[in-house]
Every structure is written in structure tokens, then in C-alpha cells.
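Researcher: Please translate sequence to C-alpha cells.
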Amino acid sequence: MRGKRRIWALIPLDLFKSRNFSASFLSLFLAGFATNGPMLLLPLFFQNVLGLSVIASALWLIPQGLGMLVTRPLIGRMTDQLGARFVVLPSIAVTIIGTLPFAFFDFGTAQWLVWLVLFIRGMGVGGFTIAVMSDAYTGVQKPLVPAASVATRIVQNVGAAFGSAILATVVSIALNGQGSAANVAGAYHAGFITSLIFMVISILPALFLTSKMRRDDRVVETGP
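Model: Translation complete:
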């Protein structure tokens, strides 16, 4: 029975013997929290603060998608040349730059400024997740690669769920039953600030990612 449990473990603990995997695992959790969590707040912010319709709120997310589309073709090449650390850290900085203004935006903010900030945020988010996920497999023994793939997907989704729940709770508490325009905007500001705090925390595990990927570093080990 003990042997069967080791064989059928969903996330084998042997994966965490790899420093890259451990750093990537924690980074993906924080990425799901700090980058996907605000995806719940953004359309609600557009509707409740900027007064947009549901369809218009969805369309306003297009600039963020375009920003992700611009950076994604470059991330793989940059990760190979520089290592994940030097791709993820600038991506975190760009994501922070693209999220911080939402802690100050209100109903009077110009549309073009919101779109520009969303585009910048998309560039950061696009560079963050892919580089971290690619680095998760560096040094992982070949038989453990499928488990590593499952683990990275799970932790990213768990982080996103936690992020959405906690940020929604922060906004709800900040509203405190008051529906004035200033209070509503302030509640969403608190939610975005909370996501920024976790984005800053994600810098710590990113420091342990691969700093320089050589060709032989990308070959997974086969183990004994």
C-alpha cells in the first residue's frame, strides 16, 4: 500500500528536490493570485466605477490581450538566451506598472489611458507565466515530467481561485454597505493594492529561477 501511494501520488514530493521547480511552483501560485485575481476585478471596476455595460467591459479587456499577444512570441527565445530569472523579474516590474494606476483611476479617467495601462499590464502578464512554466521542468527527472506538468497547472488554478476569492472579499469589506461613487472606487483601489502586494512578494521566488540557460541545462535529467 505504501508503494502504491508513492507511485500514484498526484504531486510527487521528489519534484521539490529541484530548486527550479520549487521556485516555479511558488511563483505560479503567486502569479495566479496576482495576475489572474485582478481579471475578476477589472470588468467589475469598469461597470461599477466607469459606468460601462457588460459587453463594453469585456471589450475593454482587448488591449490587455493584445499586450500578451505581443510579448508571447519573444518569451521563449529570451528565456533560452537569458534564463527565466531575467525574463520574469522585468515582467513582474511591467505588470506592477500596468496595475498600479488602477489604484488611482476613477470615473473621470480618460479611456485612452485605461487602454494604454491595460496594454502594458498584458505585456507583463504574458512574459511572466510562460517563462516560469518553462523553467519548472529544468532539472526535473524525465519520469517526473508528466507529474510536473500536472502540478504546475493545478497550482496556477489554485492561485487564481484564491486570488479571485480574496480580492473579492477585500472589495466587499471595503464597500461596507456604502454605495457612494467615491467609496466604490476606493473599494476597488484596495483590491488592486492587495494584488500588487502579492505581485511584489512574487519577486522572492523569482530570484531562485534559472539565471542563465545553457543548452545542456534544458535537457531534463533521466535520473539513476
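Researcher: Any highlights?
Model: Residues 16-215 form a domain with the Growth Hormone; Chain: A; fold (CATH 1.20.1250.20).
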